[in-house]
Amino acid sequence: MPPDPDQTDVRLASESDTNEPTGGAPSLPPPLPPHQLVKTVPYSGTPRKAGNVMRRGEHIDDFEIEAVLGRGAFGVVYLARQLSLDRQVALKVAANAGSEGRTMARLEHKHIVQVFSETVDNTGQLKLLCMQLVPGAPLDAVIHDLAQIRHARGHWTGADVLASVDTRSKLTDVFDSSALHDREALAAMDDLEAACWIGARLAEAVDYAHRQGVLHRDIKPANVLVNRYGQPLLADFNISFQSMDESSTAEDRFGGTLSYMSPEHLEAFNPSTDATAEMVDERSDIYSLGIVLGELLYGKSPLEPPPKCNNRLKYLERLSAVRSIAGPEVTPGAGDAAKSFSYTLAQCLAPDPRYRYSSGAELAAALDGTAELRHQELTTRSDSWLVEGVKGHPLRWVIIFALVPQFFGSLFNISYNTTQICSDFTAAQDAVFGRLLVAYNGIVYPLAVLAGIAILWPLHRVWQELSGTQPVDQHKLDWARGRSLKLPMWLLAVAAFGWLPGGVIFPAVIDHFAGPPPPGLYWHFFLSFTTSGLIAVAYSLCGVQYVVLRGLYPRLWPRAEEFRETAAEELPPTRWRLWLMVFLAAIIPVFAAAALVWTSHGDDPFFKLVTIAVLLLSPAGFVVMWFVANRMARLMDNMTGLDQRA
C-alpha cells in the first residue's frame, strides 16, 4: 500500500519506530561567531548497518547495554551504563558520519538534551553519542494522550500532561528539588496555560540554539522529550539537508519532516525549484514549532493538509503551494487568551518569513504573556450574569452605565426645580423657564450624544475588527487600550458639560427676560444643577470604570507580549479614580441632603420623600461604591501582577 503523505517523514534526525524516547543532546564549547550557522555534513554510506540491535549485557567501548530506548533510520538509542563513571546514560549508536555530536556539544541549556561525549568505536565504523538520560515520554505520545482526553472531556489540564508522562515513563528519575516547582505549577494549569508554558520553554531552547549558530530543521513532537517534572527538552539536532527526488530512498532523505516544514523549507526540498537550503533559517524553526504548539493544544495540526496524493513530489508541491498562500485564521470573537494564542500561531505560521517572530525569545515572550493573560482570566472568573454581559458586550454596558445615573440626576433636578423654584415663579418667569428648558435640552442632549458617539465609535470599530478572524494591527490595539482607559474621564467630562452650565444659564436668562428673580434664584439653580450633575457623574464614573476594567481593557490583548509589564505601566496612573469615586459617593449625597433640608421652604410631600430617600440611600451608595472600588483595585493588582508579588 502506498505511504500516507501526511504521515511520511523526510528524515533529517533519527526517528523512533516506537512511542519510546529516542534520547538526544547538548554541552558547551566556545560559541560560534555571531550569525554563523553550523553547516553539518550529511551521512554517507548505509547508516542501516548501525541499526543492528545489541542485547542486554553486551559491551561497546565504555558502555554496557541495558535496554533499547528507540530505533530509527540512523541507528539505535540504548539505555546504557557508562562503566567508568557508573551512571546510566542514553547511548546513541550510529554510523560514523555526520556531526550531531559536535552540533549538540555547542548547546548547554535546561531545555535541550545534553551530550556528554562523542567517541568512535575501535572499528572506526560506529559513532557513540553519550547523552543525558531523560526519564519521561516523547511529546508526540503525550499529545496523543491529551487528544483522547480532549475528545472525551472537551479540554485537558497540566495535571493530565504529568499523568501521561508518569504512565509512559519506563525509567525512574533522580529527585530534583529545583524542578519540583515546575511540576507543581504545571499541575495547576489548564490546557491553554500549559501549552503556552511548554511552548515558551521550547522557544527559549530554540532561541539559545540559534544564538549559538545552530539550526534544528526538524522540530516536531517526536524530537521533544518531556521529563517527569513536565519540562520539555529538545532533542535530535542531527542536522543536514538534501533535496528529494523520486529515486531517493527513505534512508537517503534528510532535512526535516514534511508535515512540519515551512513553505521555504518545502521549496528548498523540491528539485524543480531554484530555492536553496540557505533559505531555511531561524524563522523556519519558528514555523515548525508553531505547528507543534497547535498540535499540543488542539490535538491536531493548525494547518489543513492538501488532498492526499501517492506521488510524493506532487504532494510536496501541493503542500508548498497551500502553505505559501495563507496561514491559519485567528479564533473569532473579542480578544482573550485563547485569541492571543491563535494570534501567536498565526504569526508563527505566516507564509512570508518576514512576518513571523524573528527569534525564539520573541515567541517565548508572546507565549508567557498569553499564559499570564489566561491566569488573569481564570482568577477573576465569575458566573455572574452582569460580568458575563460586561465581558461580552462592554461598549453596550458603557452606554448603559453612562446613561442610567443621568436619569437619577434628572429625577433629583426635576423634583427640586418643581418644588423649590418654579412654585415661586410669576407667569412670565414660568413661560421663559418652559421655553428655556426645551431649548437647553434640545441643544445639550444632541451635543452630548454626538460627543459620546465621537468617543465610542472608534473603539467600536476596533472591537468589531478584533472580533473577526484576521489579525488586527498592534498599533490599533495599543491605541484602543489607551482610549479605553481614558473613556471614564471623557464621559465624565461630557456629563459635566451637560449639567453644570445649567446652574448659571437658567437663572441668568430668567432674570434677564422675565423681570426680577425670586429670592435665592441663583443659589437654588446652582444647587439644583450642580448636585444633580455630581450625583450623575459620580455613579457614571463608577459604572464606566468598572466596565473598562472588567470587560473592555482585558479583552484588547490578542497579542499579549509583556502583558503584565505593559499593564503595570498603563493601569497605575488611573488608580486615583477609584478613590475619587469613593470620595464623591461619601460627600455628594450628604451634601445634597443637607442643602435640601437647609433650603427647603415648602411642604410638598414629594419633595420630602426625595429628601428622605437621599438621606437613607447615601450610606448604601457609599457602601456600594466602596465595594466596587475595592473590586476594581483587586482587578488592577491581578492584571499588573501586584497580587502575586505581595
Strand line-up in the sheet with most strands: 1-2-3-4-6-5
Give the helix proportion (percent range).
Answer: 40-55%
Portion in strands:
5-15%
**Cα separation of the termini:** 63 Å
- The average pLDDT score comes to 82
Largest sheet: 6 strands, antiparallel
Count of β-strands:
9
Order of helices and strands: EEEEHEEEHHHHEEHHHHHHHHHHHHHHH
Q: What is the SS-derived class?
A: alpha+beta
Query: Can you tell me the residue ranges where pLDDT is under 50 for at least 5 consecutive residues?
Result: 1-48, 239-254
Written overview of the protein:
- This protein has helices spanning 100-104, 139-153, 158-168, 177-187, 191-211, 263-269, 282-298, 312-325, 337-348, 360-379, 385-392, 394-421, 427-466, 474-499, 502-513, 521-552, 563-570, 576-599, 605-640, 642-645, and strands at 59-60, 63-72, 75-82, 87-95, 115-120, 126-131, 136-138, 224-227, 232-234.
- The chain is built from 20 helices and 9 strands.
- The chain is α+β, with helices and mostly antiparallel strands and 646 residues long.
- Helix 16 (521-552) packs parallel to helix 19.
- The protein has a domain at 385-645.
- Strands 1-2-3-4-6-5 form a 6-stranded antiparallel beta sheet. Strands 7-8-9 form a 3-stranded antiparallel beta sheet.
- The two termini are 63 Å apart.
- Strand 2 (63-72) and strand 3 (75-82) form a beta hairpin.
